[in-house]
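Q&A log
Question type: sequence-to-structure
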Amino acid sequence: MIPRVPILLPVLFPLLQAILLAGAPLAAQQAEGVLTVSGQGQVAVAPDMVTITVGVETEAETADAALAANNAAMNRVFALLEAEGIDARDLQTSRFSVNPVWDNSRAAAGRPLSVRGFAVANLLNVTLRDLPRLGPVLDALVDSGANQVQGVRFAVADPAPHLDRARALAVAEAMRKARLYADAAGVRLGALLALEEAGARRAGPLAMEARLMADSVPLAEGELTISAEVTLRYAIAP
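Response status: OK
Response body:
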């Protein structure tokens, strides 16, 4: 005979009621949806500094002769930059190389290649923090013997304040979109659950080609763009 276990309703009912009440907030939380939106902000900034890559390339029959000619020309470049008041912290060697120069004419005749000389290249990154001086400095560099001008890159010395403006614009745009979506969907926009910066891009150097003219170097610095992107997550409820 199977023993009968008494059902203690007065004890079980309060216990079940407590369990159901404890799960009620979780169920309500799960009933709420989440709205995820992103926003982007951009700020146009006029550059206030520029970096140019200049230098000297020389060629001679021997490596020693090519190096000596290059050193003499680069010493004139450094002297010119010092006379222009360019600070040492704004000068940085970007490339130095010594390479053989091959005589390719022998290959056409089916003969082995031969070295007909050596080429030495010495390139220097020069940063100017006074944009109006760019043209005159380039002219003076070419006159001093610089025969390599490979790029002109405009930038912003202190992008942080502009980046903060772009971030504020990105948040405002994301909030506007969240309110728009909530109204269109007929739901209530709840608390902000998360704010994440999806990406921020400082104004990188704007590269331009410098065309050397006989009398001056005409260049236009234009504007740089600093951008930021954020993602917001809101709780929503019907």
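Response note: The chain is about 35% helix and 40% strand.
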